[in-house]
């Protein structure tokens, strides 16, 4: 038999965070065993379970709890538990009359003592902070300020911190913070005013707001007055005779150039007047057109397109004597069309844009969205500007269609068609005026080759591609028969014409199931209201087995040789070549091979570092071949530095090879120069000698 022995837990004292759950545990060791216990607090019965829970504990639940047990042997057992309720700091600031306060008024020179009341469990550390002044710090519950002034006015915060360690597994520590603030209002006049923004800029037609503040701000809260330069002041000189507005903010809903000027602000309260502030308001004006481009404009080029010298000589003697002739497309070689443009008139065309703005606007001219560069090749731009009242600038710009690349420097050409824009822009806005310029001109042939190739029983497409405005009409004929070809009912001939942007038209004569009789010369006759263009001998349908005088006929066969080979880039171990392809022989899977060889000797020009150099053939190496596949340009690599090479290009398809192109000479660059092997100095002659032969490749030592 044992009397009851009682233990309480889970720990004693038991610490629980406010609003948490407290679990009071009672363990009893006794013989005979007990079936229940008795929990009491302050002598009052509260429960009889071995484990008693308190939900959402509050500070009123803190205190002593007793668990007792009796097994009938005449002596009960009991144990006492202490419950501690933990909570973060609760902070209030004493107003001085027993209540809480959020502000305190004081006179300048007065001393202040302010109490901070903190309730916390466990106890908290307390300090005072000042808003906007990180260096200010006072520890303890009392804030003391000796001889307050306008500079000490502001918001002060009482900050309390404690650490909570409630019962938990695992044990954890929580930092809790409580604070309260009070504003100290020191009666004083406002200090120097300040206006923001300090450099205000308004756009014409938009609003602008100026904000005034004072440092120190003054107490009681000041009134603000606004006025402009030029307003008459009262005799005291402190208050403007004409007040624009009162309050911290002054708003101009819609600024204009007349709004520009100096604005003043001053803060005033019953303690006195503060020093005024002023800012200069600048009003900017977006570019505004005073001269715009016509939306749509049509001009006629004074250029006549001819294709033979006979047509040129058929012009009048006076016209011929004053003609500048230029081939604007390709030289008439390798079977390609050459269009000769003959100037037959004298015309100068220009367009003008004008705008006003503040500040000065920039002016750009665009053609089809791309900026026009004033390089005196095709255009000249003349711009005049003047400064008016209120610093408003007037800018007038003229785009002149003149340049050294134009026929007779002033003639319009078909290329001039497009959308032109003058763009004025300043810090406020970008404005643009556009014009769609159409150029009336005779048809110009654009297709590249004067032949096509198809085999028997294939469907041939003979393409005639031209540029013209107004819209042209196409007529097809065959051989010497001038009668136009028409769509045939059996579908042998079909003609389809399409239009692209830029006044480009393509007419395709489709010939189904080519017969031997279909081979020969076809003429695409194109005409508009300005003239007509004959693509005579320009497009030929070719068959290998038939030859007619003056017309070269061939089946699908080897490609024609490339022309105009040039290097577009080079390094110390590579050369990138580009060329103009020849006619592909009717097959589109043309490949290219570059043959090259190094030239072992060079003239003195090579030692001078030129890109294209004369060479000596003695000791030349054999030709090597590089497969370019279908790449044009083609990068020929694995070359040696500072060497001169000969290059030539040939084309290849399934029918065979073309002849080689003309050869060109290219020299690779220098990668690095090795250090000299022998350097000597002669003190008598003061001569420094460097053995260059040891530095250069063997092939270059005789330079």
Automatic annotation (TrEMBL):
CDD domains: FN3, Ig. The keyword Lyase does not apply. Residues 558-671 form the Fibronectin type-III domain. One of its GO terms (cellular component) is plasma membrane. The keyword Disulfide bond applies. It comes from the Eukaryota. Residues 4-84, 89-175, 190-282, 345-438, 443-537 form the Ig-like domain. GO terms for biological process: anatomical structure morphogenesis; cell differentiation; cell-cell adhesion. It holds the Pfam family I-set. It is found in: Membrane. SMART domains: FN3 (SM00060), IG (SM00409), IGc2 (SM00408). Gene3D superfamilies: Immunoglobulins. Keywords: Disulfide bond, Glycoprotein, Immunoglobulin domain, Membrane, Repeat. This is (California timema) hypothetical protein.
